[in-house]
Amino acid sequence: MSAAISLQPLLDGRRLWRGQPAPRPASNEPTGHAALDAALPTGGWPEDALTEVLLPADGLGELRLVLPTLARHTQAGRDIALVAPPYLPFPTAWMAAGIDMRHLHVIEAEAKQALWAAEQCLRAGCLSAVLCWPRSADDKALRRLQVAAETGHALGFVFRDQRAALNASPAALRLQVEPGQLRVLKCRGSLAPARPIPLH
Hints:
Elements: H1 8-12, H2 34-39, E1 50-55, H3 62-75, E2 80-83, H4 91-96, E3 104-107, H5 111-124, E4 129-132, H6 139-152, E5 155-161, E6 173-178, E7 181-187, E8 197-198
C-alpha cells in the first residue's frame, strides 16, 4: 500500500514550483457589446486572430455583432474587406451603422476561390479586418486563415453554418448565433462561459 505524500512541505521548502497562469493582456479590439466583452478573457475580439461565427440561417444578427468594430476601423481610416458575402451590403444601412464606405471593399469570389481570397487579404497587412463566407472549409483551411490573420495583423471573421460546430476548429474564438442571443463555444485563454449572452 502506498503512502500519501503531502506537497505542502515541498512547496514550503521551495523545492517544487507552482506555475501561475499569466493574465492575457486586454484587447485593443472591443466588440462594441458590453455583455460579450465581459464574457471574453481579454475583454474584446482576439487580436491578429480568426473568429468563427456559426449560424443556423442568415440574418440572425451576425452583422450587428461586428458592425461596431467595422465602424470604428473605417472611421479611423482603416480598410476592411468582405470576401464572397452572400448579399451585397446595402450602403444606406451600413452608413447608418457608422461605416465609412470609402474604406469598405467587397471582393466577389466563386466558392472555390473564397478561402484563397480571404487568406490573401488577411496576409496582405493592408486590411484591418476581413470577413468571409466560405461555403465549405475544413480545419486545414481555417488554420491557414488563422496563420494569415497573425501574419497580416488583422481581425478575421468567418461566417459558417452551425453544423460546423461538430468539427474541431483552430479559430481563436467560436461563437454560435441564435435568435436573440449567442453562445461562446470556444475562446482562447479561458473556458467558454456556460450561459448564452443576450444579443440586442
